[in-house]
């Protein structure tokens, strides 16, 4: 039985070694990918000053991002994003309104849609027409950073400029107690189409707090200004993720961190279990084999190493103390 158990444990060790290798080489590449069922809502709030009145007002924004699973594949994910920015004078405005139904004091500031594709591992834009069709090509990162974020400068897409700008690493900071990497995008007085058919200058100071393991944006703030060529400010915006959005992002980050952490530890865990199983299995198997050899040597062999003949063995059938008779004595031979 010990021999059988030993063999089973050594077989288990082989299985665990295979598991450790798969967890080290194959599994991370399959797990560390942007999901194809993404359907996320990001809400922002803040203050804005805009023409024609020039008065300041509370604003809120919604960004709804959905993955197009039918167009996506194992390497690339396709997204459709709808963004809406409205005034929110009493704090009770809906997520968005159209320009013909503004409600009580609520007005549409901007609304837009965007279609883009990104690499599921690196987060970088992919501009193959089989994914995005005739949509506007993008550059750099668009809606998230790569898995395993590095402390360096990344190119990040700016939709108003229509190109990527630098997102510079500015250190590590805690957000709701969760460690993040802080990146800053600083665009100053860039020529741009600040509204449809209207040229001017555009500035944006965007700060993003990123989960280092998944690359997801946990928190974001932005100070944006659009100015006509005459110097008149068209839009002066200061807003960021709502507290509820930040809290939900951190909750997701913690859950994803636990899953990815387990994947990263799995090779070590499986490797240690493999060594333990192999050691115990070999001990049991070798011990059982050794006991079997000893029985053969001491109980089933004669002095010269050959199996003893039955009629040469001494058997104390009478229980004499003085002498032991052979089987030949008993049979009279």
Automatic annotation (TrEMBL):
Pfam families: PorA (PF11271). The keyword Lipoprotein does not apply. Residues 293-315, 322-333 have a biased composition (Basic and acidic residues). Keywords: Membrane, Transmembrane, Transmembrane helix. The chain crosses the membrane at residues 266-285. Residues 293-333 are annotated as: Disordered. Coiled coil: none annotated. It comes from the Bacteria. This is DUF3068 domain-containing protein. It comes from Knoellia locipacati. The lineage of its organism: Bacteria, Bacillati, Actinomycetota, Actinomycetes, Micrococcales.
């Amino acid at each position: 039985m010990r021999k059988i158990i030993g063999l089973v444990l050594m077989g288990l060790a082989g299985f665990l070694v295979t598991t450790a290798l798969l967890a080290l080489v194959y599994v991370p590449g399959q797990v560390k990918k942007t999901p194809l069922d993404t359907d996320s809502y990001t809400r922002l709030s803040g203050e804005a000053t805009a023409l024609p009145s020039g008065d300041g007002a509370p604003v809120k924004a919604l960004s709804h991002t959905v993955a197009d699973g039918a167009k996506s594949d194992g390497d690339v994910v396709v997204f459709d994003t709808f963004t809406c920015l409205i005034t929110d004078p009493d704090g009770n405005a809906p997520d968005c309104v159209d320009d013909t139904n503004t409600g009580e004091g609520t007005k549409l500031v901007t609304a837009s849609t965007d279609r883009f594709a990104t690499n599921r591992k690196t987060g970088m834009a992919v501009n193959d027409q089989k994914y995005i069709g005739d949509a506007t090509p993008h550059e750099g990162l668009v809606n998230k950073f790569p898995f395993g974020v590095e402390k360096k400068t990344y190119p990040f897409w700016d939709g108003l400029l229509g190109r990527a700008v630098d997102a510079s690493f500015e250190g590590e900071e805690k957000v709701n107690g969760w460690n993040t990497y802080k990146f800053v995008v600083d665009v100053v007085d860039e020529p741009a189409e600040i509204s449809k058919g209207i040229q001017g200058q555009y500035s944006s100071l965007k700060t993003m707090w990123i989960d280092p393991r998944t690359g997801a944006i946990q928190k974001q703030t932005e100070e944006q200004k659009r100015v006509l060529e005459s110097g008149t400010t068209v839009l002066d915006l200061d807003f960021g993720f709502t507290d509820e959005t930040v809290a939900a992002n951190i909750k997701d980050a913690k859950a994803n961190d636990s899953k990815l952490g387990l994947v990263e530890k799995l090779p070590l865990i499986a490797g240690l279990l493999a060594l333990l199983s192999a050691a115990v299995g070999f001990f049991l198997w070798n011990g059982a084999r050794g006991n079997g050899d000893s029985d053969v040597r001491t109980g089933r062999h004669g002095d010269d190493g050959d199996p003893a003949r039955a009629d040469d063995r001494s058997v104390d059938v009478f229980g004499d103390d003085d002498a032991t008779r052979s089987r030949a004595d008993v049979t009279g031979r």
